[in-house]
Amino acid sequence: MLIRHATLPDGRTDIDLLVQDGRIAVIGERLFDGRPLPEGVELMDAAGWLLSPPFVDAHFHLDATLSHGLPRVNASGTLLEGIALWGELKPLLTQEALVERALQYCDWAVAKGLLAIRSHVDVCDPRLLAVHALLEVRQRVAPYLDLQLVAFPQDGLLRAPGALANLKRALDLGVDLVGGIPHFERTAEQGAESVRLLCELAAERGLPVDMHCDESDDPLSRHIETLAFHARRLGLAGRVTGSHLTSMHSMDNYYVSKLIPLIAEAGVHAVANPLINITLQGRHDSYPKRRGMTRVPELMAGGVNVAFGHDCVMDPWYALGSADMLEVAQMGLHVAQMTSQAQMRACFDAVTVNAARVMGLPDYGLTPGCHADFVLLQARSAVEALRLRPARLKVIRRGRVIATAPDAAATLSLPGRPSRIDWVLPQ
Ligand code: FE2
Fold first, then answer.
1. Contact by Cβ (8 Å): 308, 273
2. Of 1, 16, 187, 399, which one is least surrounded by beta carbons within 10 A?
3. Number of domains in the chain
């Protein structure tokens, strides 16, 4: 396949890409201007639209997705009622229904150009129903979507009876990462102990770690400090992720000035979940209400790799969402007030390259040798993609088109005005 006249997220235009054997063979400006095209290649004219590596969601819950309203809706809209509601739903789940909903979500993801997802999977169920279901889903979607699974003790590793044993069984079955939820343990000390146990387990088994960490408005919820400490102590740099980190929003500035360098030094990734953080945090506040999302621009400036995750779509915690990582990035941009051109581009990175780094995806990107995985967006730049959340004209996996969508142009019938608009300015 030869893709011609693409615009890239870094701003380069008129880029041609030659794809061979599912990988990028050559990439450069107007490679084939005036040259005969290689024989037998399929030609795709990108027509100046934005060609990006696919979107990556570094934080999701595929076991809960699309279950909104089962068995009832979250009346208070809080995190804790969401956890209680998930607890009510768990005994009613069947493996078939879990698989069906997860596969449906993966279809939505592909259509939106989202081709890699890290999903937490609840292991606080002695049947490990969700684990079995998502292992099946991981295998079934593998030809078109990279799915990583995190063994997530939703009800607390030390708080829920049998959680540690269940978590180990999930890892034995092939779940990819060790998860945790230290702020949900009974005490801060138990939270810290869970972080130590889980990091040591991960080091023993050679697995990465991704913990729900400090998803709280309590400024004294400081488990990220412990997570960074054990990541460094056990030599896990680059393989540990702190998800949510919302308490950092409320922490004392002096303490944060010490904390961010510790996170960077330990090589711990951070994942914010803007749609969920802005709806679930600050719920105990009257006015002013805290936003609750972690300190994204400050973490980035401190050298920490930060990604944005979707976290929830139509589940006990969130009734909305559509697998569109541009919606996630757009919310992150607003909540963090990242409105400069460079900051907006950083928000696009947070759902592409940064998230791929969190997941440790090999051969992801736009250099020769990388997988020929792309999404062609009906926008002229990364910032325009954030503004428009445009049509995913083509989604390509290993050099093969796996989804297409019509452009989002509208037809007008107005006297003396152009009949077609596609929301971009004339070039
Ligand atoms: Fe989560």
1. yes
2. 187
3. 2
Mean pLDDT computed over every residue of the chain: 96
Please check whether residue 427 lies inside any domain of the structure.
no
Best CA proximity match to 320, nearest among 329, 312, 330, 328: 312
Both 187 and 270 in one domain: the answer is yes
Alpha-carbon distance of 98 to 242, in angstroms, equals 26
CA distances from 227 to 1, 196, 242, 272, 334 (A): 45, 8, 8, 16, 28
CA–CA separation, 224 and 405 (whole Å): 41
Which tokens hold the place of 58?
A: 């570094």
Distance from residue 83's CA to the centre of ligand 1 (Å): 11
Query: What is the number of alpha carbons within 13 Å of residue 358 lying toward its C-beta?
Result: 33
Contact (CB, 8 A) for 348 and 356: no
Which range of residues forms the domain containing residue 411? 2-52+365-422
Q: What percent of the chain has pLDDT over 90?
A: 92
If asked whether residues 377 and 354 sit together in one domain, one would say no
Instruction: Choose the catalytic residue: 185, 215, 225, 327.
Output: 215
Residue 31, CA distances (Å) to 10, 35, 51 in order? 18, 8, 16
Q: What is the mean pLDDT of residues 100-107?
A: 98
Closest CA to 405 of 99, 126, 34, 112: 112
Whether this prediction's pTM lies above 0.70 is answered by yes
Compute the distance from residue 212 Cα to the ligand 1 centre, in Å: 6
CB-based burial label for 374 (10 Å; 0-12, 13-18, 19+): buried
Q: Are residues 11 and 102 in the same domain?
A: no
Give me the residues paired with residue 28 across strands. Answer: 16
Residue 210 lies in a domain: yes
Beta carbons of 86 and 71 less than 8 angstroms apart: no
Q: How far is the CA of 317 from the centre of ligand 1 (A)?
A: 10
**How far is the centre of ligand 1, averaged over its atoms, from the C-alpha of 213 (Å)?**
9
Active site residue 88: no
User: Phi/psi at 155 (nearest 5 deg)?
Assistant: -90, 10
Statement to judge: residues 218 and 119 lie in one domain: yes
